[in-house]
Amino acid sequence: KSVDLDDFKGLCGKKWPLMSLIRQNYKGGKANNVASYVPTKPYGSCNSDGLYSDPRNCAHYYICRNGLSYHLSCAAHMLFDPTKGQCDYIEADMCRPGHSVHFPNTFREVSNFLRYKAAEEDKSPKVVCYLTNWSFYRKGEGKFVPEYLDQRLCTHIVYAFGSLDPEKFVIKEHDHWVDVENDLYERVTSIKDAKVLLSLGGWTDSAGDKYSKLVSDGSARRKFVANAVSFLRRHGFKGLHLDWNYPICWQSNCKKGPASDKPNFTKLLQELRREFDKESPPLMLAVGISGYKEVIEAAYELASIGKVTDFMSVMTYDYHGSWEKRTGHVSPLY
């Protein structure tokens, strides 16, 4: 969701009611599966196998194994809950540094609370927040800037939007005055507790045939990919979120685009993935896809796209709107 549409100033009660509810219910259900991997180098000595909270920092804890202790960190936005012996999405006022929980059994049983491979942290739930540059123009209480964001709420932030140059087929700022002159690029990428991606496209920027021309030309794709890496690194983004609306179904009209858009879009994503993986650390790659079944079937090679993207965002909104005579839910609740 776009975070600037939540009650971020608490005008109707507590701040961030919707995002807080998402964080509490969606993320909280996966607590067991997001602990850090066990480091190979011992931190010190200990007496009894088990898990122990760090007396100085509730976001850290120790595991004792065969007389040696290992210092671990909880995943982003989590604290060690000594009542459960695991990292969880608990409030800071529930933090009890120095409190220990002891498991007298073997390390194998203790390991039920931990993941051993750092890569598996990527399987933890994501709360992806959209931050729009046009919210900067709102007047009064409606204006939103990155500094208003409660950084604990989001694991990833998608900043909307970048634009595709229709002649050079490279990324450019959508609004230079907001993005660069008012430093919104710098201000949003300075948020350290979330991975910030630049979203390219959107409804307005997807008008016309420029994205179709880009994906259909191998040399244009190579130029775009090289420029994308440079652009993202220059402005401090951790990755790219492609939001073309949509291959074949240009702005939802599936009679506008050529059938070649579908495989060519996959080619672009595959080429981006190869170059992004060469970076250190690798850049993230995500894609926004339509929430309409007929568009999904026409526009995307989902199996192939899923192999090269870190995540896909389904646009589950605008199911009803001002073009209809009767009011309906804008987005499905489940």
How many strands?
14
Largest sheet: 7 strands, mixed
Number of domains as seen in the coordinates: 2
Counting helices, strands and paired strands, the structural category is alpha/beta
CATH homology superfamily name of the largest domain: Glycosidases
List unreliable stretches of 5+ residues.
Answer: 28-37, 102-121
Structural summary, described in words:
- The chain has about 325 residues and is of the alpha/beta class.
- It has nine helices and 14 strands.
- It has helices at about 15-25, 105-110, 175-180, 185-190, 210-215, 220-235, 260-275, 295-300, 300-310; strands at about 45, 50-55, 60-65, 70-75, 80, 85-90, 100, 130, 155-165, 170-175, 195-200, 240-245, 285-290, 310-315.
- Helix 5 (about 210-215) packs across helix 6 (about 220-235) and helix 6 crosses helix 7 (about 260-275).
List the topology elements.
Elements (H helix, E strand, L loop, with lengths): L16 H11 L16 E2 L4 E4 L6 E6 L2 E6 L5 E3 L4 E3 L11 E2 L5 H4 L17 E5 L23 E9 L6 E3 L2 H6 L2 H6 L5 E7 L8 H7 L1 H18 L3 E5 L17 H16 L7 E7 L2 H7 L2 H7 L2 E5 L19
Parallel strand pairs: 8-9, 9-11, 11-12, 12-13, 13-14
Antiparallel strand pairs: 1-4, 2-3, 2-7, 3-4, 5-6, 9-10
Helix pairs in contact: 5-6, 6-7
